[in-house]
UniProtKB/TrEMBL annotation:
Part of the ABC transporter complex LsrABCD involved in autoinducer 2 (AI-2) import. Probably responsible for the translocation of the substrate across the membrane. The keyword Transmembrane applies. It is a multi-pass membrane protein. It is found in: Cell membrane. InterPro entries: ABC_transp_permease. Keywords: Cell inner membrane, Cell membrane, Membrane, Transmembrane, Transmembrane helix, Transport. The complex is composed of two ATP-binding proteins (LsrA), two transmembrane proteins (LsrC and LsrD) and a solute-binding protein (LsrB). This is Autoinducer 2 import system permease protein LsrD. The chain crosses the membrane at residues 20-39, 51-83, 95-119, 126-144, 169-190, 224-245, 277-295.
Amino acid sequence: MTERTETRGLFSRLPQINPVWVLLAALIVAIIFMNPGFVEPTGYMNFLKRAAPLAILAAGQVYVITSGGFDLSVGSLITLVVVGSSMLTNNDPTATYWVIPVMLGIGLGTGLVNGLVVCFLRVPSLIATLGMMITLNGLAFMWSGGAPRGYLPDTFRFFGRELIRDVPLVRFIPVSVIVLIVVVGLFAWLMHRTNLGRQVHAIGDNPVAARLAGVSVNRTRITAFMLSGLSGAIAGILLGGFAGVSTDVGTGYELQAITAAVLGGAQLLGGRGSVPAALGGALALTAIFTLLNFLGLPQPVRQVVQGLILIAAVALAMHRRKQTGT
């Protein structure tokens, strides 16, 4: 009995690896097996470029999920950012320099409104952000007249499709990958190295106890929604860069972001979440979509797989939560 206890204690002291990284490694091996060219810089850099908007979105979504909520409005926010940017730039390259700050402000403002509705009107986040999703979609269609107009100038599309060349070892780095590293790094630092992250985890675990401990629950929740809105605006800027103007460019991204966060171990009831693990979830989800494309499977199959992954990830998370008694 003593030896078993000592062995268990030894394993508990070993570094714990999030299963999402094991899954990602297995998927990457499968991609390389099907497409050996993936090991070339062009292969894995284009993969990271495609994953960047979802990874940034998941990094913001994990704040809301960890605090005990949902944000279903980010997909529509992406669409509004892309459509709105094309309308405001009006084919003028110099307009990019004020349009991008405006779009980032719209993202923060959307998150602020979501947070205020949830905190002060006591509307469940699922309903509040669903209403915001419908509102933003309506605004995008009203603004564009129901069809995309104009185009995004090269100065705007720079962030989504431009490459920095002559980089040692990797030859080139997409600007979107640099944006990904900066944004996810900042979000990870805020979540895991500042008081904000501790407060987000505290209110997600037990908001009553957090309030009694002196945590400003409403302010923390509103901040979480604002960070999610900011991530949606940044993702929209990147998607506008390499996808162009479309009225359905953001469709489905809200559920993909939730799936990525949950795949990384975030608990839908709140109290646990990790930005690096959400990044791993986004990369794993992108890898799954890449494999499905290699297999030549249609878009509906991708949606079925995404739904099954979300169900399985939540079921596994609930099982582990029950086992640990938290």
